[in-house]
Each structure stands twice: as C-alpha cells, then as structure tokens.
Write a structure and sequence with these properties.
This protein is mainly alpha-helical and 256 residues long. The chain has twelve helices and three strands. It comes from Hyaloscypha variabilis (strain UAMH 11265 / GT02V1 / F) (Meliniomyces variabilis).
Length: 256
Amino acid sequence: MSSAAPAPVCETKSNAPNLCVPQPFVTICIAAGENKAKDEATKPLLLEVDSEENSDIIDNRLAALAITDTKAPKFSIHKNIICHYSPYFSAAFNGNFIEGQTQTMTLDVDEKAFGVLVNWLYNQVVTSEVGARPLLVTLAKVWMMAEEFLMPGLQDQVMDEMFKTCKGPGCIEGFGEFTQLADTHGNGDNSLVDLGVWTLTWCCKEFADHHIDKIPRAIVIKAFQHFKQAHQPAHDKAGKATRKATDFYVSKDNKE
C-alpha cells in the first residue's frame, strides 16, 4: 500500500514581501520642478515627539497635497514592498516623519527613471516601459536614485545594463550627458565616473570625436591618464575585456 506523496513545500524567505493579504499603499508624487537632473530626494520632515504643532503641520501638508496639480505624476506602491527594498522609504513611512502620517512623499526626480525603479520593485528587472534596456542617461539617473534610497542591489543591477551599453559597438546615445551627470554627482568620485573613464579610455577615435565636446574635462584627463598607464593589458581588440561589470559594483557581496 503506497502512501500519499507529501505536499510540496515552497521555500520562501521569511522577510520577503508578498501580496497574499491586503496591503496598504503609499503615494509618491513627482514634483513638477524644472530641475530634475539631480534626482535628489526631498528629505523627510521629522516631527517632534508629542508636539502640539504636529497636527497643524500634518493638516497643512495634507491641504497642500489636496491642491497638488492633478496632472502631476503619482505612483501608488505597496508599502511593504518599497519599504522592504529601501531603508530610506522604510524610515520615512514608518518613522516619526510627516510622511509617516500622510503616507505620501513628493520627489523632484525624473519620472521615467523613477518608473524604472518602481517596476524593479515588483519585477526585479531593469527595463523600460516597452521592455527594452533604458537609455544610458536614464540608467544613470536610476543608479543615483538607488544610491539616495539605499538600494545597492538595484545600483549593481543597473550597472550591469550600463556596462552592456558602454561595451557595445558604435556611438552611445547620450554618452556626453551621461558623463556630465557622473561628473556632477557627489564629488565626482563614483562608479559612474569610473565607467565613463573606462569607456572613453578604450573607445575608437570616431567615438571620442563624436562625444568629446560634451565630456567634462576632468573625465577626459582621467581617461588619458588611464590610457598612459595601460601597458599591453590582456584584452580583446577593443580593449574592453579587461574589466567586468562587477568591477563597478557598489555592493561588496555582489563583487564576490
């Protein structure tokens, strides 16, 4: 007499987000400001514990949200998902911040780039709305936002896509603008700059001539210095096999 086969058990991470039960949403509003190139988050407003002014502050913020331009883009995101992948949003929406009371945040970021981030939250894939690899400039903006929101895993996944673009043949659309974003991000010492320098170091003359007018001088100088230091490295004809995408990762775990 054969016994019934045991029911399969799905292996799941206890702390992984799921949608098996009703979940609350948070709302991310994209500001209509003109300067979206920086992709910097609006800092959450900390509320004083047991302060009588809290209710007035919250009421004023809610009133401001009520008259927000109805055409302004808004992303409704499951709270447990965005807070799981981003300590930044977890602190804002769960802490003693006004965002924790309103469950709404306004960001002055690029809408298309933030959409890539939101899609990644649910699908863990870096892709555009049409299912293609986003443009290099858009990827750079996603990378910078991921840094701001403390999401190193997303940064490294975005780096994979940027690396594929930079390693590809021909002229790269928006490479000059990409290097400008990289050069002005932080103090100019970041993985975006390293990727831009590496690409420029091993590019063909036609590529350099096409983009040189838009590339910051600091990156051109670094590329020239790297080229001088290269002494017959083991690389392919384009000189690009000497580096891997993981060389530009920010997460130590992913580098291993």
